[in-house]
Amino acid sequence: MAQAEEILALTHPVFYSLSRLHCDPGDSCQAVPGLIAPYNVLGMPDFEAVVGLEVHLHLKTSSKMFCGCDASYFGEAPNTHTCPVCLGLPGVLPSVNAQAVDYGILFGLALNCQIAPWTQFHRKSYYYPDMPKNYQISQYDLPIAGHGYLEVEGQKVRIKRVHLEEDAAKSTHPDSANYSLIDLNRAGSPLIEMVTEPDIHNPEQARVFLSHIRAIAQTLGVSDANPEEGKMRADVNVSLRRPGGELGTKVEIKNLNSFRSVVRALEFEIRRQQEILRSGRRVEQATLGWDEAAGRTYVMRLKEGEADYRYFPDPDLPPIVVDQTWLNRLRAALPELPAQKYTRYVETGLRPYDAEILAYNTPQARFFDRALIAYQGSPQTIANLLNGEVAGYLNERRLEVHQTALEPENLARLAGLFERREITNRVLSLLLPEVMEGADPLRLVEEQGLRSVSDEGSLRPIVERVVAANPSVVEQVKGGNLKAANALLGPIMKETRGTAKADVVKKMLSEMLGVEL
């Protein structure tokens, strides 16, 4: 206990000051005499953050990495997707999942990596309950790919390595219990681990990078890359240094399961190390965890070095030779990647903002491309609907577009009705829920009589009736309060069920009241 407290005091002294300030570490606090207030390091020039990421992607294969067990274990009963191989029983013989190797090469190619012509698997020894063999089959000095890069917001983030490995089991630690529970369904599942160079300098850049990695994985079809299901996890390495100076002592924060957690953990850890360095102390190398509820990191263990893992080639698995024929086949199978989609969308006339949202949201991009095939109008109209009304509908219900009954052809028809001004904004909003549930907007408009009305002759009786019923509002408008005219426009729209064209109604009101609306 004394050693743990000493480590905490060396590496996390800011905990004490923050807890005594009675504020959340993410909030700004007033300075209190005798206490250390947190700093916003991102706005301070004397230190800069240096961040590297390690991203784990659960591969979308039907079986595990080195055995035939079903890899679709999410939501299944614990310890039901296991066999002697992934349990690490004596005398078993693992074999490499060929599709997982294909996926590793595809992912490396998408990240502009060099693909290794010769690679092999190693045993990485460590002793935790979540690894039944007491070693993990991974790749060490000969990974499947490396020396690549991904361009993020005009800056290249270098990719150090991409390697294949098996996942550990899942540990659960019940509250107030003196034991842990192990679910071995995940043990042996195929993973890609991607390691960047320390080229990231703030939490937001890390978030954008991760969103791009997710989009690439989903576009390739190699992984669902869904953090909520544990199919995309990130470890972050972070240190501080003087601008342009030597790298500082880094700490690693393990198993961050959402982009939000990555951002919050980096913000806290950068601030914590700033406090330590400003007070003249040194940052101790350690492995940290992230407490999402408390909003702070905590010490898990002192950092192991490579020697602690005692890597050696796995004697049961032969080396893998990637010849040019194999490489050419996979290179030819590469789909259009998100960065290429972005360029294409901008060239077709989309605003860069909308192009980026769509290009890096794989389900939306696929839907957008299908809708464009059925649409003859401006692509921007489809993009406006997807990034506006449709996105609002999906966010409210926490759905992806492919989880609804919305058909690309129906969205194209809705966009056409709107772009041709055959329906109004109000009618579009009225129709959207039914269209999201699979209804044809053309049929709805005809059956419900919702086509836009611009004929002044048919609108005049309604406008005159509303004006006559609101003399006080009329007086306000004539007196110069033009905004009061909205109180007339609303009842007219309600009576016409939103079909009256607003510009026509405003023109008629202007003529009747003798003002310019």
The major pleated sheet works out as: 9 strands, mixed
Give the overall form.
elongated
Estimate percent helicity.
Answer: 25-40%
Strand order of the largest sheet: 2-6-7-10-1-11-12-13-14
Strand content: 15-25%
Query: What structural class do you assign from the helix and strand content?
Result: alpha+beta
Number of strands: 16
Mean pLDDT equals 86
Q: Give the N-to-C terminal Cα separation.
A: 75 Å
Q: What is the CA-based Rg, rounded?
A: 29 Å
Number of helices: 18
Unreliable stretches, pLDDT < 50, 5 or more residues?
1-44
When the domains are counted, the total is: 4
Structure overview:
- It is a single chain.
- By secondary structure, this protein is α+β, with helices and mostly antiparallel strands.
- It has four domains: 1-59 and 196-303, no CATH class; 64-188 and 306-335, no CATH class; 338-448, no CATH class; 456-513, Arc Repressor Mutant, subunit A (Orthogonal Bundle), CATH 1.10.10.
- Helices cover 40% and strands 17% of the residues.
- The protein is built from 18 helices and 16 strands.
- It has helices at 2-11, 14-21, 98-110, 203-220, 259-278, 306-309, 324-332, 338-347, 352-359, 362-373, 379-397, 408-419, 425-436, 441-448, 456-468, 471-478, 486-495, 502-513, and strands at residues 48-58, 114-115, 118-119, 122-125, 135-138, 145-152, 155-166, 170-172, 181-183, 190-196, 232-241, 251-256, 286-291, 296-302, 312-313, 320-321.
- The protein has a nine-stranded mixed beta sheet with strand order 2-6-7-10-1-11-12-13-14. A three-stranded antiparallel beta sheet has the order 5-4-15, with no helix packed on it. The protein has a two-stranded antiparallel ribbon with strand order 3-16.
- Strand 12, helix 5 (259-278) and strand 13 (286-291) form a beta-alpha-beta unit.
- Helix 10 (362-373) crosses helix 12 (408-419), helix 15 packs across helix 17 and helix 15 crosses helix 18.
- The longest helix is centred in the middle third of the chain and has 20 residues, at 259-278.
- It is elongated, with a radius of gyration of 29 Å.
- The termini are far apart.
- Residues 1-44 have low confidence and may be disordered.
